[in-house]
């Protein structure tokens, strides 16, 4: 039997083309990314805001063609709610890694949650990034974006010293702090730095995480009659603190605090103008983010965020979500793989030059890279003041958008 060579060539060509078409779509490798955030519980409001930032970035990345090094693979978010609880954080982290087989985890949000997360990450060798976590990682499979608790403590002391150089009379300080690892370290570090400056720390007062009324704390501070107060508080605790100060009519000392409890963008509106005017405008808030920051990436995130969520406040939690997600997208491109170990190594190996569009947080004013311990190098805390419902950066002066108002305390 004779075979038509021309026909055979065409059949083979068709078979090759058909085979190629059948496997071509499979070349694009989608990647699962876990999101471990508090969507319920004490920190739910912050967690939901973080989620919006992450989802916006991932949607944009997928719409722009996905991860190029994975053949245009799309990012598939697998969301888990840790209920603002360390125990649930551990359980959900294990589920994401062992059952969902995620390549990386965005989260958790706070320091107690991160402490529960790290042993799980170490066991399964799946990386994660803490957002407003202030500890130093104890495993190579966890990194942070925030400033360390020690860095916070030193920042408060530096701010007191700067205010003094501007004419404020601060010889004594009282400290209130969230009674967990984060608050304890911040308080201890701040007290040591203040003492070294010659400032007397009258008392460091712990505040339990389950606090429902800050009136007893404010009364204790008032009895000490300090020149300044440093309050290390979360958003919910800050709300209670400012309401107690307002109700007691106590606004005498210079008040410094943070982070979310003094600088969250929802704070003014949530407190109401009357309370906010009496408490926030007389305070200095340690912050990670303020929309008057001068970074190109921040301006881009604000523009896209306002278009995506016109009815939502773009607060610092939202920007932490944007920051983490943009870093994750870059790490996936660099890794060219969905292997968790390779993705984590790429994340730890990230390097950005100053002004890179991926940088959105003003606490990263210059080049960005990771230290060997998983903390960000080159971060610098900022302090803000509120005026008419908006916050403005006042310190450091190199990134400030306005001058600090001393409210007659010279």
Short description:
The protein is an alpha/beta fold and 410 residues long.
Task: Give short descriptive properties of this protein.
five-stranded parallel beta sheet; seven-stranded mixed beta sheet; 45% helix; 15 strands; Rossmann fold; 410 residues; alpha/beta
Structural commentary:
The chain is α/β, with parallel strands linked by helices. The protein has 2 domains: 31-147 and 294-379, Response regulator (Rossmann fold); 149-287 and 383-395, Rossmann fold (3-Layer(aba) Sandwich). The chain is 45% helix and 18% strand. The chain contains 14 helices and 15 strands. The protein has helices at 5-27, 44-63, 86-98, 111-124, 149-165, 181-196, 215-224, 235-248, 260-263, 267-271, 273-279, 296-308, 316-335, 340-348, and strands at 31-37, 75-81, 104-106, 128-130, 142-144, 172-178, 200-207, 228-232, 254-258, 283-287, 351-352, 368-370, 376-377, 382-387, 390-395. The strands form 3 sheets. The chain has a 7-stranded mixed sheet, sandwiched between helices. α2 links the parallel β1 (31-37) and β2. The model is unreliable at 7-25 (pLDDT under 50).
